[in-house]
Amino acid sequence: MATTPNVSPLLLIEGVGKVYPKPESGGSFTVLEDINLTVVPGEIVALLGRSGSGKSTLLRSIAGLSKPTRGTVTSNGVRVDGPNADVSMVFQSFALLPWLNVRENVEIGLEAKHLGPDEVHRRATEALRLVGLEGFERAYPRELSGGMQQRVGFARAFVVEPMVLMLDEPFSALDVLTAENLRGEIADLWEAGNFPAKSVVLVTHNIEEAIMLADRVVVMSSNPGRIRGEIQVTLSRPRERNSSDFRAMADHIYTIMTNPDTQITQVVQDRGSLVDTTALPHARPGAISGLLELVEEYGGPEDVAVISDRLRIEADDLLPILDAAVLLGFATVKEGDVTLTEIGRTFADAEVEQARAIFREQALKFAPMVRTMHEVLLSTKGKPVHEDFILDILDENYSDEEARNQFETALNWGRYAGLLEYDSDEKTLQLHEE
Q1: Residue-by-residue DSSP string for 402-414
Q2: Do 45 and 157 share a domain, yes or no?
Q3: Are residues 20 and 140 in the same domain?
Q4: Among residues 316, 280, 259, which one has the least CA distance to residue 403?
Q5: In what order do the strands lie in the sheet with 78-79?
Q6: Fewest 10 Å CB contacts: which of 140, 155, 157, 340?
Q7: pLDDT tens for residues 342-367?
Q8: CA 121 – CA 411 distance, rounded (Å)
Q9: Does residue 133 share a domain with residue 52?
Q10: Domain annotation covers residue 4
């Protein structure tokens, strides 16, 4: 829902800034600057921004865990000068006490409320029921999966029945499927009216997560963190990520995040899909070229097992190279035989510059992440882009390790194709200059 002047705010953030000193230099570092934000009952507000935008610092300031250098935070009409009893938090790390069982971890949040044992038991039982942990009350954190541990984190936050629930990237430490499942269950609780908080503030760098859960997306810029603007999410619930309206909004926000100069406006038309993060086979362009030259030399079609034997390379190492050749349209595989396509034969026989030009054309056509990197760089009009932006996109679909591997593969292909350059010192990408 949108904020209106007729509704008393639960949270009022006015002119908040946060500056950390740098003793070694005698200077300072500004994390947040002039943050103004209102949260009213009945809404989920997503704080969306890249690393360095101060999202978590802002959340800690609201919770009273970090005192702003300037400005004020008001909670339910009272200025926050210490821990904010009106809010509870769920962190990226599960932050469970390993020597306590599930029920004890949940009940510990009620110690400061001085409730009777019957009320403590009732609240904890209800909170565990809401997150689907009935029957696990006596289990210890070491016995639980990551997803179940985070459910305990949600139950511990629910049990205090906070005015505002603060979520600091609560799904980012989970694998993709577990995160999607838990995210969906939280959305279901909210949509069913069973949520034990009046409002939610969600910190995330995941664009689709923000659209799936939030009523408002507040977009933050980095270094220092400022609010660039906000977007009302007017999509009906439950939300379908494959709908044209969802994809249009995702694409619009993606454009905003990649281009600091883009004006933040509401989405009024379908802008197509967001980002295709189809996995790239981990193969270097030189290996792809070498494979194609070998098949061409022997006249093809060539049996995969024979190629493996000739190259003295294990099949497990050969297959990603072969998959890459197929993905790029250079080869086909049928019944274990590799056949070069017409463009594959041309590529195998081409001189260096012509080969790079062919690879560039095929990569832009068939390698989604290479195309995405190139489009991002085009949108910045020559400005460099930090690698973290691309990794943030990949982190939504892959583990940290595989996100890095996908980035490295796309980077190798893009550099070979002459599409982009990479500064290893600054860890930035920019368009290749002829």
Answers
A1: HHHHHHHHHHHHH
A2: yes
A3: yes
A4: 280
A5: 27-39, 11-22, 70-75, 78-79
A6: 140
A7: 998 899 888 888 999 999 999 998 88
A8: 54
A9: yes
A10: no
307 vs 155, residue with greater confidence: 155
Distance in angstroms (rounded) separating the CA atoms of residues 334 and 350: 25
Q: What is the pLDDT of residues 152-162, one digit of tens each?
A: 989 999 998 89
Convert the pLDDT of each residue in 80-98 to its tens digit.
999 998 999 988 887 888 8
* 184 contacts: CB under 8 Å, gap ≥ 6: none
Task: Please indicate, yes or no, whether residues 53 and 186 belong to a single structural domain of this protein.
Answer: yes
Contacts of 378 (CB under 8 A, 6+ apart): 431
**Rounded CA gap, 294 and 306, in Å?**
11
Q: Extract the tokens encoding 364.
A: 């832009």
pLDDT tens for 281-296 read 888 998 888 888 877 7
* 66 residue type, one letter: S
Does residue 181 share a domain with residue 33? yes
Contacts of 372 (CB under 8 A, 6+ apart): 275, 276, 277, 390, 393, 410
Do residues 205 and 211 make contact, with C-beta atoms less than 8 angstroms apart?
no
Q: Are residues 147 and 48 in the same domain?
A: yes
Tell me: do 181 and 46 sit in the same domain: yes
For residue 63, is it within any domain? yes
Q: Which of 357, 374, 333 is nearest to 343 (CA)?
A: 357
Q: Report, as an integer, the average pLDDT of 320-338.
A: 84
Helices (H), 79-116: 102-107
110-119, 122-131, 298-307: least confidently modelled range: 298-307
Q: Which has the higher per-residue pLDDT, 379 or 185? A: 185
Phi, psi of 104 (to 5 degrees): -65, -40
Structure confidence at residue 5 (pLDDT): 42
Residue 165: CATH number of its domain: 3.40.50.300
Q: What is the pLDDT of residue 265?
A: 53
The number of residues in the chain equals: 434
- The residue whose two tokens read 């197509």 is 272
Number of domains in the chain: 3
pLDDT score, position 276: 59
Kindly state the tokens that stand for 94: 């599960």
β-pairing verdict for 44-48 and 216-221:
parallel
Beta-bridge partners for 165: 88, 200
Q: Which residues pair with 167 in a beta bridge?
A: 90, 202
Cα–Cα distance for residue pair 139/150, rounded to 1 Å: 14
Task: Report the alpha-carbon distance of residue 59 to residue 84 in Å, rounded.
Answer: 11
| Cβ-based neighbours of 298, under 8 Å, separated by 6 or more | none
